[in-house]
Amino acid sequence: MKPVIKVGLAIGICAIIFSVLFTGLETKESSTSTAMVGEIVPTFELPEVMDTSVLLNESLFQQQPLTLLNVWAAWCGICKTEHHFLHQLKEQGITIIGLDYRDDRIAAKQVLEKTGSPYQAVIFDPRGSLAMDLGVFGTPTTFLIDQKGVILHRFTGALDEKKWQREFADFFEE
């Protein structure tokens, strides 16, 4: 076999392997997981990402009839694509609490300072303890929580208008 063909074949095989691995790393969209749906948000006390002297707990969810808890991270590429839509939800009056999952606090702060924060507050969860208690297996994951702290719905994947209408909008209609 000619050297040019061998190199081309090797590059092709590498490209196929790379694409398979890359697509495997993306969080798969799912609302079929019922993990924690119907359960109370676990108790926690974790710092606020912008000011670690402020400790946050499950009472965050008692302030509004419905609150979204959005699990995200600065290192999460699809979280960044979702961020713009979360700003739209905030403008519509939807209360969103962020859960910064297994992240570097400075990187998370930089993302929020650069893009603006759609969150009322951001829980800093560097070890992922709260996320694990919630059964999170990928980012972004969004939970809908009522004023009693009961998890009503869960969706894993990046939210956009279509997914919002399918997954969450009915909860907010009066």
Task: Describe the model.
The protein has helices at 3-25, 77-91, 105-115, 129-133, 161-167, 169-172, and strands at residues 45-47, 55-57, 66-72, 96-101, 121-125, 141-146, 151-156. It has 174 residues and is an alpha/beta fold. It has one domain (30-171): Glutaredoxin. It has a five-stranded mixed beta sheet. It has a two-stranded antiparallel sheet with strand order 1-2. Strand 3 (66-72), helix 2 (77-91) and strand 4 form a beta-alpha-beta unit. It is a single-pass membrane protein.
Name the features.
6 helices; globular; two-stranded antiparallel ribbon; 21% strand
Name the poorly predicted regions.
14-28
Number of strands: 7
CATH topology-level fold name: Glutaredoxin
Order of helices and strands: HEEEHEHEHEEHH
* Structural class by sheet pairing and helices: alpha/beta
Radius of gyration from the alpha-carbon trace, in angstroms: 19 Å
Total of DSSP H or I helical runs spanning 4+ residues: 6
Amount of beta strand = 15-25%
CATH architectural grouping: 3-Layer(aba) Sandwich
Could you give a quick summary of the protein structure above?
It is built from 6 helices and 7 strands, in the order αβββαβαβαββαα. The chain is of the alpha/beta class and 174 residues long.
List the helices and strands and how they pair.
Layout: H1 3-25, E1 45-47, E2 55-57, E3 66-72, H2 77-91, E4 96-101, H3 105-115, E5 121-125, H4 129-133, E6 141-146, E7 151-156, H5 161-167, H6 169-172
Parallel strand pairs: 3-4, 4-5
Antiparallel strand pairs: 1-2, 3-6, 6-7
